[in-house]
Structure formats: structure tokens, C-alpha cells
Amino acid sequence: MAKDQEYNVQAGEPVGVIAAQSLGEPGTQMVLRTFHLAGVAATIATSGLPRIIELLDAKKMPSSPIMRIHLKESYSKSFAKADEVAKKISEIKMRSIMKRVAENFASGKILVILNEQSMQAVDLTARQAAARLAKELGVETKVGEHGNIIVNTHTKNLKDVRAVTVKITKAIVNGIEGAGKAMVAQEKGGEFYVEAAGSNIEPVMQVEGVDPGKIYTNDLFAMYRVFGVEAARNTLALELKKTLEDQDISVNDRHISLIADAMTADGTLQSIGRHGLVGKKESVFAKAAFEETVKHLINAAAFGQIDYMRGVTENILVGKQIPLGTGSVKLVIKRKETKKKEK
What we know:
The protein is an alpha+beta fold. Helices cover 42% and strands 16% of the residues.
């Protein structure tokens, strides 16, 4: 057999069923566990069966998003420069750098008491935090004598003051919203890059020093929004392969590629289920055989839908030969030749 043909499948081969079985069977053996991802502190990455389910269900937001941000050559050679980029990206909220908040309802002012150690750890000053707070919330801020932030709400209404207090604790005082905590990591070749526990790619691409063409995230929809359906398809295939390999399970790349192709075939990301691939099938019986049987049959009867019995599921359901394997071939006999043989 020629080398370029040794991986070709025969006509009528049920490649979809084989791909589903190749991924489904090892899935029953997976261990439900989580592990710490090296390089990103305090980030626990979803792995094993929960991650496989997350990918095949095409969840809008992964439970543990990760970004791998490569830097331009002038930044990737120096740890100090890479750390500067990481600090610009790293999302820091007010609640992580403050001790407590004191409200004065009589004057309508809020005192934010900062934690000096936490401020030093993220290389942030009270003035910087106050300026970002004013920009984010549109309130009047100033730094007090003891290095704390005083917020003037210009209202004495208890409810309004409390609403501002809640917003203050959730406000971002440094970095990019949705980027999560960012840290510098080093590749085997010695180059530095940034890993972040978030998936907000668009604003990260604008940060000075970041190579916009070399950003990767395990968030399928973030890749789809920014880089298109092909990037989302490749990310899906890569994440499935990586998750299986982490569990020491070997599945041929072709099965994984076929699943990724099917989920992105219409130019969007869709799940494998009643809200995705199965739900969009033309066959009434195929949809009814999967889930919500009565609903599909009643709707089909009410609207006079026709099932042309072209797929596998619907033919199995009614006991007909499936259009796969030997069933994909139709034989035609010429009557004239038959009559000659009979004579």
C-alpha cells in the first residue's frame, strides 16, 4: 500500500461511531481529580472527565481559564521586563489589598483602610489605587494622612453609600479585567513568557511588549471571538488531546480531529447534545432517540414533518439496514442479462 494511502478509510466506514467510541470508552476510566498547573500560583486547572465534558458541551466560560502570553524578543530575554508586562496585565481587585472599609453615613464618606504588605507585594501605591478607583467608579477620592483612601459619595442616603462600598470592594485597581493573576514563567529555551489565570485576550494584545500573534488560552469562545473558527477548532482538538494525555490515555489524533471538525462545521462552536449537533439533525427519529422523545414526536406530528431515513440512528430505530458498511452499497441487476442466464 502506498505511503500516502495507508491511513485512508474504506468507503462506508462508520468513522463517527468509531471516533465516539474511541473517546467515550477511555472516558469511563478517567479519574476525577484536579492538579495544580505549574507556573500559575493559586490556580487549579480542571482536568480529566470534568474537562472533557466542559469541552464537548462547549461551555461559554471554562471553570479554570488560562492564558499563555508570549512576549516580543526585547522583553522575552529579560525577567525584569517580562515582570513589568505581567504587572500591567495582572488583575488586582481592591478587596485583595485592603484590610477593611469604614462607612460614615453622616458625612457620606467611606474610608478604605489599605494593607501595606499586600500593596508592596503587588508594587502598588495608595495614590495609584485611588486614581484607578476614581476612574472605575466615577467617584471623588483622595489619600488620607495615614495612607488610606477616602471616598466622597456626595450623598447621605444609607442605601446609596452602601452600594458604593460594595462597588469599591469589587473594583479593579490595577491590571486588566478578566486577565486574572499573571506571573512570569520560563521556557526550556530560556525565554520568559507570562501565564495568567484568565482569558480576556483582546485588551492583553494591546499591552506594550506582548506579541499579539502568540497568545493562547484554553477558553474556546475567547479564541473563536478573536482569532476565528479555525483557531477555535484547533484549540478544541489540542485541549482534548492534552486532557487525555494528562490521564495517560492514548487516542488517535484523527478521532479527536473528527470531533473538533463536527463541532465547528457550520462556522460556529456548538456542543454535542440536544442544544447542538443532535438538536440540529434533520431526522425526527434521530432527535427523539437521543433525548425528549415525546416532545420531538408530538412536534413532528403537529407540524407534519417528514423523516427521509437517511441517517444511522433512525434506521436502527425502525429495523432497517443502515447506510454504512455493506449497507452503503446498492446493487442493481439488469433483467435482460438475468433472462439470458435462465435460458
